[in-house]
Amino acid sequence: YRSYKNLMWINGGNQIQFADQKQEFNKRPTKIGRRSLSRSISQSSTDSYGSAASYTDSSDDETSPRDKQQKNSKGNGDFCIKNIKQADFGRREIEIAEQEMPALMALRKRAQGEKPLAGAKVVGCTHITAQTAVLMETLTALGAQCRWAACNIYSTQNEVAAALAEGGFSVFAWKGESEDDFWWCIDRCVNLEGWQPNMILDDGGDLTHWIYKKYPNMFKKIKGIVEESVTGVHRLYQLSKAGKLCVPAMNVNDSVTKQKFDNLYCCRESILDGLKRTTDVMFGGKQVVVCGYGEVGKGCCAALKAMGSIVYVTEIDPICALQACMDGFRLVKLNEVIRQVDIVITCTGNKNVVVREYLDRMKNGCIVCNMGHSNTEIDVASLRTPELTWERVRSQVDHVIWPDGKRIVLLAEGRLLNLSCSTVPTFVLSITATTQALALIELYNAPEGRYKQDVYLLPKKMDEYVASLHLPTFDAHLTELSDEQAKYLGLNKNGPFKPNYYR
Amino acid sequence: YRSYKNLMWINGGNQIQFADQKQEFNKRPTKIGRRSLSRSISQSSTDSYGSAASYTDSSDDETSPRDKQQKNSKGNGDFCIKNIKQADFGRREIEIAEQEMPALMALRKRAQGEKPLAGAKVVGCTHITAQTAVLMETLTALGAQCRWAACNIYSTQNEVAAALAEGGFSVFAWKGESEDDFWWCIDRCVNLEGWQPNMILDDGGDLTHWIYKKYPNMFKKIKGIVEESVTGVHRLYQLSKAGKLCVPAMNVNDSVTKQKFDNLYCCRESILDGLKRTTDVMFGGKQVVVCGYGEVGKGCCAALKAMGSIVYVTEIDPICALQACMDGFRLVKLNEVIRQVDIVITCTGNKNVVVREYLDRMKNGCIVCNMGHSNTEIDVASLRTPELTWERVRSQVDHVIWPDGKRIVLLAEGRLLNLSCSTVPTFVLSITATTQALALIELYNAPEGRYKQDVYLLPKKMDEYVASLHLPTFDAHLTELSDEQAKYLGLNKNGPFKPNYYR
Amino acid sequence: YRSYKNLMWINGGNQIQFADQKQEFNKRPTKIGRRSLSRSISQSSTDSYGSAASYTDSSDDETSPRDKQQKNSKGNGDFCIKNIKQADFGRREIEIAEQEMPALMALRKRAQGEKPLAGAKVVGCTHITAQTAVLMETLTALGAQCRWAACNIYSTQNEVAAALAEGGFSVFAWKGESEDDFWWCIDRCVNLEGWQPNMILDDGGDLTHWIYKKYPNMFKKIKGIVEESVTGVHRLYQLSKAGKLCVPAMNVNDSVTKQKFDNLYCCRESILDGLKRTTDVMFGGKQVVVCGYGEVGKGCCAALKAMGSIVYVTEIDPICALQACMDGFRLVKLNEVIRQVDIVITCTGNKNVVVREYLDRMKNGCIVCNMGHSNTEIDVASLRTPELTWERVRSQVDHVIWPDGKRIVLLAEGRLLNLSCSTVPTFVLSITATTQALALIELYNAPEGRYKQDVYLLPKKMDEYVASLHLPTFDAHLTELSDEQAKYLGLNKNGPFKPNYYR
Amino acid sequence: YRSYKNLMWINGGNQIQFADQKQEFNKRPTKIGRRSLSRSISQSSTDSYGSAASYTDSSDDETSPRDKQQKNSKGNGDFCIKNIKQADFGRREIEIAEQEMPALMALRKRAQGEKPLAGAKVVGCTHITAQTAVLMETLTALGAQCRWAACNIYSTQNEVAAALAEGGFSVFAWKGESEDDFWWCIDRCVNLEGWQPNMILDDGGDLTHWIYKKYPNMFKKIKGIVEESVTGVHRLYQLSKAGKLCVPAMNVNDSVTKQKFDNLYCCRESILDGLKRTTDVMFGGKQVVVCGYGEVGKGCCAALKAMGSIVYVTEIDPICALQACMDGFRLVKLNEVIRQVDIVITCTGNKNVVVREYLDRMKNGCIVCNMGHSNTEIDVASLRTPELTWERVRSQVDHVIWPDGKRIVLLAEGRLLNLSCSTVPTFVLSITATTQALALIELYNAPEGRYKQDVYLLPKKMDEYVASLHLPTFDAHLTELSDEQAKYLGLNKNGPFKPNYYR
C-alpha cells in the first residue's frame, strides 16, 4: 500500500545521512510502523511449535552466542547462532514450510536443469524464519552461495537458524540480539576474507546501508539489490534521487501480486481474525466505520459486510468514494456516525484521522483499531492525559476509561492490527519469497544495460510468472492463447499480458 | 441444535437411573460432546483479564475452600468460594459484562415498578461467570432469592464467585472442584434449614437430579424447572415420557432466538475464527467440503464463500440439498471431492461421516474439523493405529502423519471446533440468560393449570420479547401495527406474530 | 405465502356462499391479488414465440369457439378450443417445456413399470400452458384419464390447447373467454354422460365449487381434491371449518419445497428483474427500504445487497427484526428513511404499509413497488386525488406527479411486481406440477382411513421426493445414510428426514 | 474497454485512408462490435414513452426531412429534423432526463457565475437522445454555441431533436437516415457561411474525419477534439502515430470513472438483466462458465455468484487467474467444464474463444452469450452450417438445433449482450456526458502549450471532479483533508489524490 511520500517521517524527510545513522537505529525496535518488524513478532509467536518455544526458553543460558565456540556436525564453524542442537527441530519446521511454498519448490525442480544463479554470491538480511530458510535453500539449489543475517533483533527462529547452520549456511542471527550484535552479525556476513558478495537481498535497507557506509568499494562487483520493505524501498528512491545509487535495485514490495495479497486479500481475512482474537466481538449487526477505501479498506469492508455488519466508509478521494457507493457502503464524514458506531477501523495511510475529539464522542465499548500503514492514524498520544485511565485487559487490548465510566477498546495501541494481532498466512510469504528469488535471477542475468543505476519494478512478465507458480496450489488451470489469438491481440503467447502499469 | 434422538449415547440409551448415576457423573469431565462444558472452558480461558488469571494462580494455597472459615465484609458466611479477597476484581468484570447484556439491565429497570419474582426462591446450577452474575443480580432485582452452585468443576471464575459472595449471594463454587466437592456444593445450595426452593434453574440436569434423588418431597413446593442444556432437556423429556416428571419444565434450549444465534449466526463467525486461531490458514481459493447443510452448515458455508473459498456440500436430505444448490454450492458425495479439498468440516449430527477410508485419501495438509454436535462425526478413533504418527503442533492441533509423509491437520481431536477453539460472544450468552429469566418469570407467574407436568417450549410471545429486548443493542427500531392492521392480520398488536412452531 | 387469515378480504370474511357467487366471479379479472391470475398473464406474454403470437392474432375470426364444429385429425370432437390448426406449433412448445421439467419426465419413466393412477378420472381446472400440458400428459402416462378447463379467462395458450386436443385430451379453454364461457367450459369438463370424475385438480377453487353447487352427488365417487392456490386452499379450510368438506383435500400450496421456491429463491431473482424491466434503474449505491423481513423480504434484501444497494428493513416481529440485524440490515421505521430512499418495496402481507403520508414525503423519482401478497400494501387508492397527475410512461409504470413537480414511479399500480413485471421460471412451475402429480397419486392410492374429510399438507416424505426429483437438474448427488447411521439417528434410510412442521 | 491493439480489425490494421472511406461507411450499420451503435438501439427502444413511439409512427409521412421546409415557432429554420410538432413531448423527456443527470445540472448552476465555454463553437456528432440534449443545453449554459448531427442513422429520438430545434439548436438528425443523409447532416453542421467551429465533440470519429477530408483548413481554428468511443479513439491514436493529428484530442473513453462504470459496475447488473429478459432463466444452482476475468468478467462473476450460480472462470493471464482463485472461483480450461455448464459467457476481448468444437459438446439447453467487446468471441459463423437448424424464438434469442435434437440458446447472435438485450442506466450516461463537458472545458481553456498535437487522457483531477459531481446522487459526503494532513501526504487538498495511471 501507499506512496513513498507517506514515509517522509521515517527519517524526518531528510536525505539519507550516514553520519548520524546510529541514532536512528537505536530507535528501531520501537518503530511500530515498520511492517516487517511487526510481522515477524506476531508470526514467530504463533508459527512455532509449542514444544519448540519452551525448548528455546529452557536452553536460555546466559552466554552470548558471540562468545561461544560453534561448529556444526561437519566441523564447519562459519556461523553464529543460539544453539546448534536445535537443528533437527528446525529442519522439521522447514520441511512443513516447504509443503506450503510450492512455487519455490517448483523453481528448485527447474533448477535441476539450469542454474540461473550459478556464481551468484548473495548476502541477505531478512527475518530468519522457516519460510526464509526455504528461500535460502532454493537460492542455493539455483546455484547461489548465501550468507545471511537477521533484519530484526527479535524475529529469528533459533531452531531454524540452527538447521541452516547445520546445513552449511553461514548464518549470523539469534532471537534477542542487542543493537551491537545486530551490526556485528551483518558485518560478519559481508566482511570475509577472500569472498565478495555480488547480490544483495535486503529487507529494511540496513544491510545495504552498512555496505554503503563501511565497504563502498564492494558495489563495484555488486550486480544489484533486491529490496522487500516499504522502508528500504523508500531509502533506495532517496538514494536514487540524490544520485547516490550505484547499482540497479529491484523494488519487490510494489509488484502487483505481492500488493494484492498483502492488501486486499490478506486484509479481508485478517481484519476479522484480528478483531476476534483480541475482543471476541460478534460481527453480525454491528455498525462499523472504515476510514479509507483503498485496497485495504476494500478488503475490510467486504469481509465485515459478509459477516453481517453495517459498514460506513469515509474517503477523501471522490473516485474511491464513488466505488464505495457502488459497492453498497454509505459514504459519510466521520463525525456523522462517530456516536453510533461499534467499531472504528482506519486504513488511510494518513495521520490524525481519529483524533481526540472523535474519541471523546464514541459510545461506551467502541472498539478502535488501525489497519493502515501509519501508527498515527489514530491519535493515540492524545489519550495519554491524566483524566483518562488505561487498563490493559489482554495482550494488545487496552480499555481507555473516561471519567464518566465510558470505555473505549483500543487495539495494539493504534499499530497495525493485522500484524500485531493476527498472523500472515504462509501463502502470502510464499508470494514474497518467490518474487525475491525471481528478482535476484532477473538482476543477476540481465544483459548489460537493461538496468541502470535506478530503482525498478519487477517486469510484468516476472510478476505474471510468480502468479503462475502459485496457481497449482489451487488446482487452477490456465488457458493458453492459440497462435491466431495471440496475433489478434498483438500479444506474445507467454505474456506479458498486461501493461507494466497494470494494478 | 438437533433432535434428542441423537443424544441417546449420552446415557447409553437408557432411562434415567438414579441408582447408578455415580458412574455417569464420574465420566463427566471427559464428555466432550457436552456443549456447556466445552463452552465454559474456552470462555473462561479468554474472557478473564490476564492479570486476574495470574492473581488467581498466585493465591493458589492448597487448603480446600470447604475447610476454610469464610465470611464477607458484612459478616455473612453462607457461601463457599475460593477467596473472598478477589471480590473487587470480580465486581469489575461483572460491571463490564453488564454493559454487554442490555436486555437484562432493561429487565432490572422494569423491576423498579413491579417485582414479578417476589417470593421466588431460586436454586441455580450453571457456570459461574460474569454473565451468570449479571443474571443472578437481575433475578434478585426482580424479587427472587437465589442460591447457586456450579454446573461444571472447571468453569467457575473465582473472582466472580467472590464478588457474588461479597454481594450477599449464597454461592458454592470454585474452579477445580473434585467430584465430591461438586455434589457437596449442590447439596449446600438446596439443603438449608428453614428455606425451601420453589424454582429450579438448571444447566445439565444435575441439580434437578440431585433433588429427585435426595429430596423428592421438595418438588411439592417447586413451581417449575428451567433447563438450558441439550443434555438436561433430554433428561427431562425422558422423565416426562416415563411419567416421572412432577413439575412443569421449560426447555429454553430450543427457543427460536437462542437456536438461531447458537447455530446459524454464531457458527457463521466461529468457523472462521476457529480455523484461523488454530491453523492461520488463508481462506481465499481454498476448496472446502462442508458435510451437512442444516443451520450450522448454512452458517459455515456462507462465511467461507464470502471469504473466497470454493465450497462443496454433502447432504442426505433432499430438501436441504436443494437449498444448497439454490445457494450456489455444488452438492457432492464426499468421495467425489475428498482427494481435492483443503478443508473438511462436519456438521451433520451424525456419526462416522468422515471415516478412515476418507482420511486415507485426503491430500497432504488437509485440515479436518467438526462443527457438529457429536464428536463421532469424524472417526478419530480409526486414526489411533500404529502406522500413523500423531504430532501435537499447537494446543488443539494435531498432525496425523501417514507412513509416506502425508500429514492431515486434525483440530480439537474431532470435538466441536467452535467451542474448543474459539469463544462464545457475550451477545449469545445474553440471549440465553434473558431467556432463562423470562422462563422463570413465566413459570412462576403462570395461572394454575396453564402448565402441566410436562416439558414446554417458551411461548412464542416470550421468545419475541427476548428478541425485542436485544434490538436496542443494534439501535434497531421496531414498527408497531396500527389497530386496523392488527385486525386485518388477525393478530394482537403486541404479538405473538408467529405460530409457535415457527423456526 | 402467508397465513390464511390474511385472505379474509377475498370474500369479505364470510363463509363460502354459493348463492351470490356470481357477483364475486364478475369481479375476478380485476382482483389483482390473486396470484395465479397475474402469473398467467405475465407468463403468457413472454413464454410464447413471437411468431406464434402473431399467428394467433391473425386467426382472430370472430366466431366463438362454442359455435364452431370442432374435430381433431382422428375425428375426435370432445373438446372446445380456438383453432385446432395451431396444434403443431403447440406441440413444439410442449416439447421445449418437457426439457425443462425433468422431474415429470422421470415420473413418466417410472410409469412404464407401474401405473399408480390407473383408473383415475381427473378433472382439472388450471392455467392451460405448455407446462400444464406436460403435467397432463404425465398424468395420462401414469394411467389417468383427464378432462380439463382453464382457471382463468385470459391465460390459455391457444396453440397448447390445440396440441392437447389433437393429442386426444378433452380440453375446453381459449384465450379471452367471457364469464359465461368460463362456467360453460367447466361444466363441459364435468358433465358428461357415462363418465364421472374421481379426482379433482383445482387452482383457485372454481371447479370444486361448481361441483359443490351443481353436482354435489359426484363427491360420492371422488377420492380427493388437490388444490394449488392460496385462494382455493383458503376456501377449502373454510369448508372444512364449516363441516362441509366431504372429501380429503391436499394443500400443495404450502409444501416446503414450493414455498421456498415461490418466495425466497424466486423473489431473490424477480425483484431485480422486475425493477430492471420496468425502470432500468441502476442498483449500485441506491438506498432501498424493504418493508417486511419474511422469506420474500429476505430474498429481496439479499439480492439488492449483493448488487450494491444500501438496504433498510422495517419489521413488526422482533424475531424477524433480529434476523435482519444479524444479516446486516439497519432496522428502521419507515418514517425515519422515507425522505432519503430511492426505492420502496413492500413484502408484508399487511395493508396500508405505505400510506399517502409517506408517499407525500418521498423524494423526487422514488420508485414504489409491492412484492407482497396483498395489493393494498401500498395505499394506491390514496393517490387517486385531483391534485396528483398520473402519467403512464410504460406498461406497468406510472409516474404520479405532485403539484410541485415531484414524481414518484409506481410499478404495477401496487400489485405484485414479480408476477406483473417479470416471469416465473419454468423450474418453479416444475416444482409445482410435480407436487400436484404426487399429491394426486397419494390421495388416489391412500389406504382407506389415512385421510379424513379434511385439508392436508403433503407428507414430508413426498415433499422430499419432489425435491429429490429436481436434484439431477443441478447434477447434485445426494448422500445415502448407512444402516448404522440411520439407526444412530433413529431415521428411516429413505426419509422422511425432517419432522412434518419443518420449514 | 481494452487496448487498442484489439481494434486493428476495424480497418484492417491500416492507416486511416480517406480515399476508400466510402466502402467502410457503407458497412457501418452491420458493424455490431461498435459499442455506441448497439447502445443507441437498445436504448431508444426502451427509453421512449410508449405513446411517443406510436406518435412518431403515425407521423410517418414519406417525405424526406431534407425536402421539407422547416421552421420553429420563432421562425428559425437552421435545422433539419423529422417533425417539429413533437417538440413538447421531447421537452418532457428532456426534463425527466435532467432529474437523473444532477452533475450536468450542477455545472449549469456554476455557469451562472462564470462561462468557461464563452466563445466556444462546438460541432457535435453523437446519439441524439434526451441525455444528449441535457448535455447540449448545459454546454450552451456554459457559454458555447452548438451545432449537432447524429452519429448513428437509427439512434435519433425524433421528439428530442424537435425539442432541441424548437429551443433554437441547429440540429440535423432523424431516425432512419440513409447513408447519404448521414453525411449530408454532418456537412450541414460544419459548413455554414460565416461560422467556424473551434471545438469538436465526436462519437465514432465520423465528424472528425469529414472535416479532415473536406475542410482540413478548419483545424487552424480548432482548439481540440473530444472523442467518446473506442473506435474513434483508436482512429485518433492512428492519426497521431502517423503524425497527422493536427490538434490535441481528449480520450474520454478511458477515464477511470467511465471505465469502472461501463465495465465492472454496469456489467454486474446487466449480465443478470440481459439473461433474464431473453431467457427467464433461474440463476440459482446453475453452472456457469465465464471466459475472462477482467473488469467485465469480475462484474459478471460477482453478480452470478450472488444469485446462487456456481461459477467457473477461464483466463490466460496468471495475475487475473490468481484473483479469480482468491475471489472463490474455480479456474478451469473451457474444455474441462463445457459439457456440464448451463450458461457460457465470454468477456475476453479475444476471438474464437467459444469455437464450434465447444458448441458441439455443450449440453442441451445451454445458453451462450457474449459480454465482451468483440462479436467474434463466440464463433457464430461456425454455426451457419446445413445440418444445424436455427429457430428464432424471441427477439435476440435463437435456438440452434443439432440433428439429434440438442438445442443451444444463442443470445444476440454473439453480439454484446448488455447492449443488445438490456439498457444502459442513465447514471452511466450521466458520467459520460459530464466527462465530455469537462473535457471540452479543459481543452478550450488550457493555456498554450499544455496540450500538444496528441491524444490525452483526462487529467486525474478532472476525472475526480466528475466523480465528485456524482456523489450527491448517493447523498455521499466526502471528507476533506486538513492542511496538516495534506502536507503530511504531500497532496494538494483539492486533489488530484491519485497518480494519473491509477485505475
UniProtKB/TrEMBL annotation, chains A, B, C, D:
Its cofactor is NAD(+). One of its GO terms (cellular component) is cytosol. Binds 1 NAD(+) per subunit. Residues 28-37 have a biased composition (Basic residues). Residues 263-424 form the S-adenosyl-L-homocysteine hydrolase NAD binding domain. GO terms for biological process: one-carbon metabolic process; S-adenosylmethionine cycle. SMART domains: AdoHcyase, AdoHcyase_NAD. This is Adenosylhomocysteinase like 2b.
